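Researcher: Quick test of sequence recovery. Tokens follow.
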């Protein structure tokens, strides 16, 4: 029988590891880290963007990986979820529905202990910035008037909204997820390391938590290619737990009472005077290198 009272707390974790081109090895790391988080009572574990396959390969290789490995990878995630009893969020590359010849989607998959994928989110904002062109490798999801492209998932007594890396730079998307009921934002990333990038990562995570008075679960791939600094932030923007090494998990207890206390003390969501509306007209792709050039390190940028 289902309890009439929703859970008042959720043990959540962020996991950090560097994905390779060996999908089986990546799944082994997911299993090991999920098991480690479960041992710390975690019920939800957020993994990085592109956990299925390394980003720093040619576009054709990513397309092949999506065709060959997406379904086995999702099946593997389902098996891990079933065996560990936790809900997983992880990044993958997926063929475009109805057009397997198109560049794949950069997808986040949510898989629960029931063994069946619960939800998916295809990345909306592609990182065509800092002289990088993510759109050369993947296809952006289309936006819709009803925000159908956005993804929120109930986990325990919370609602989790999904953001994929560069999405973090668009506060209106986080706010749209909160409008749909999210009180936890899960951010999966492969945030490239480089001048100012680590500062941007931490500042934007903190801002999304503070302005939305919500928890933020931020998983990133580690240095040297990415910034690392995977962490969990509370609704006041304080870092509650963090991954300090190259690989590992950080676990924190999310508390409904604390969330309500913060939203009572800082009722900024109730004080809003403007609403978020989607832009449904596709944006044109700018030529590579458009805009001012800023120094970044080599590697795949997210």
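Model:
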């Amino acid at each position: 029988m289902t309890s009439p009272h929703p859970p008042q707390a959720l043990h959540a974790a962020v996991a950090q590891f560097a994905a390779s081109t060996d999908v089986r090895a990546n799944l082994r790391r997911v299993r090991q880290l999920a098991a480690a988080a479960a041992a710390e009572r975690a019920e939800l574990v957020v993994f990085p963007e592109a956990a299925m396959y390394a980003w720093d390969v040619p576009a054709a290789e990513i397309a092949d990986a999506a065709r060959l490995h997406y379904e086995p990878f999702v099946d593997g995630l389902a098996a891990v979820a079933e065996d560990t009893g936790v809900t997983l969020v992880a990044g993958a590359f997926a063929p475009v529905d109805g057009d397997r010849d198109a560049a794949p989607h950069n997808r986040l998959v949510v898989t629960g202990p029931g063994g069946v994928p619960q939800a998916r989110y295809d990345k909306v904002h592609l990182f065509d910035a800092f002289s990088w062109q993510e759109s050369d490798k993947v296809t952006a999801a289309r936006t819709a008037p009803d925000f159908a492209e956005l993804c929120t998932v109930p986990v325990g007594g919370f609602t989790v909204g999904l953001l994929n890396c560069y999405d973090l730079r668009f506060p209106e998307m986080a706010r749209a997820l909160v409008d749909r009921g999210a009180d936890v934002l899960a951010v999966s990333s492969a945030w490239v390391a480089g001048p100012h990038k680590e500062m941007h990562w931490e500042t934007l995570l903190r801002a999304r938590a503070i302005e939305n008075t919500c928890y933020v679960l931020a998983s990133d791939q580690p240095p040297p290619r990415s910034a690392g600094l995977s962490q969990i932030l509370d609704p006041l923007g304080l870092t509650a737990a963090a991954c300090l090494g190259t690989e590992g998990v950080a676990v924190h207890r999310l508390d409904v009472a604390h969330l309500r206390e913060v939203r009572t003390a800082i009722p900024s969501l109730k004080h809003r005077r403007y609403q978020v509306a989607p832009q449904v007209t596709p944006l044109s792709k700018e030529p590579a290198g458009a805009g001012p050039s800023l120094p970044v390190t080599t590697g795949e940028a997210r």
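The chain is about 25% helix and 25% strand.
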